[in-house]
Write a structure and sequence with these properties.
This protein has 99 residues and is mainly alpha-helical. The protein is built from 3 helices and no strands.
């Protein structure tokens, strides 16, 4: 018996390639920070780069939250919308507690 399972579509599916490109750029920035530490670069310069990576990750996270709100929450069935909204707000709470 064959089953026809499909992967659920995510809100970011349309921009997945762009999202992966951004995450790879962030990965490169983190590698740069590692090299800066290995080279014993000035602390403030390292901290500035860490701040840039955090800002880049925040931008990715906000984009994902926006996609989730528009695709997963607003597109949810009426009986599932409250649960999806709670899930969204929990994710926002986790992002805000950082630091």
């Amino acid at each position: 018996m064959m089953t026809n399972e499909t992967t659920p579509t995510r809100g970011y599916s349309a921009s997945k390639d762009q999202l992966i490109k951004r995450l790879r750029r962030i990965e490169g920035q983190v590698g740069g920070i590692e090299r800066m530490v290995a080279e014993e670069r000035y602390c403030i310069d390292v901290l500035t780069q860490i701040s840039a990576v955090q800002a880049a990750l925040d931008k990715v996270a906000l984009g994902l939250l926006d996609d989730h709100a528009h695709h997963c929450v607003m597109g949810a069935q009426d009986n599932d919308r409250d649960a999806k909204t709670d899930e969204l707000m929990a994710a926002v709470g986790r992002l805000m507690r950082r630091g």
